[in-house]
Amino acid sequence: MNPADVAQSALPLASSDVSLISLFWQAHIVVKLVMLGLLACSVWVWAIAIDKVFLYARTRRAMDRFEQAFWSGQSIDELYRALSAKPTHSMAALFVAAMREWKRSFESHSRSFGGLQMRIDKVMSVSIAREIERLDRRLLVLATVGSASPFVGLFGTVWGIMSSFQSIAASKNTSLAVVAPGIAEALFATAIGLIAAIPATIFYNKFTSEVNRQAQRLEGFADEFSAILSRQIDERA
Fold first, then answer.
1. Whole-model pTM above 0.85?
2. Distance (Å, rounded) from C-alpha 83 to C-alpha 78?
3. pLDDT digits over 29-62, tens only?
């Protein structure tokens, strides 16, 4: 038998298995690296998403508990002593930072009440910025994966199709049984890219909205607390 005929007849048998695992192992090394990178990004996205879900839930509960304690009629001095003894986050950290500046100013017998109000507002603004930075951490990863993964998958697809066409040209066989497995291998990279990109985009939009809501709560409390301290400053002036 002609060796070329033997090679052509063997190609369909070698490529007849189109399971996902088989498509991965039959893919070109570059396409394999693309697939592995996209799978790693997908795992990273889900790890960040799970961490953020628990983080935002804890932050919401902490805000609810603090607001309940703050508006319960308890003395703000007692609340400050209770919270300043342990690390705090979110709204409690904002309150502690403002009260610490308040205490320092009066303990030093400062009479610059106009400057005190400005310093308290500045301290609360810095605390809000730090809290938003804590909540925003690693969201850029989600945005990057969501925007770049489809293009990385497309790169793997283009490379796989190029390799398939080279194999077709070498074997001089254009039957569907020969062409289809190579095209499937190439498109598998695009599919993995979309699997990584779609959840990343959804999570990024959801978490960005959650950060904005919590930032608005912090800013609202800062305005209310600033007004309370401003009245006390006017009474002592």
1. no
2. 9
3. 877 888 889 999 999 999 999 999 999 999 999 9
